[in-house]
Write a structure and sequence with these properties.
Elements lengths: L5 E4 L2 E4 L11 H7 L6 H20 L2 H18 L1
Antiparallel strand pairs: 1-2
């Protein structure tokens, strides 16, 4: 099972980024090396990561991007 979770940050839900310190098999690993093993949940998670990436790069302001990054870093520090 992969490490899929969601972060509630900046008044919205964001996919939790996969980190090198994670011990479980990642969705990104499965996408590269074992795509036939992806579950529907993992496929939807990967799609949400792509959408989030596009939103942060194109559809939002620098201030909003900075806010999301700040809150995500705080969330991940508290998780550890």
């Amino acid at each position: 099972m992969s490490n899929i979770s969601w972060m509630r940050i900046a008044d919205s839900n964001w996919p939790r980024p996969e980190m090198e310190r994670d011990e479980e098999v990642s969705v990104s690993w499965k996408l590269r090396y074992a795509p036939e093993s992806l579950t529907r949940e993992e496929q939807l998670y990967a799609a949400s990561v792509m959408n989030s990436y596009g939103y942060l790069l194109v559809d939002t302001t620098n201030a909003r991007t900075a806010q999301v990054k700040r809150e995500a870093k705080t969330w991940l520090r508290e998780e550890a």
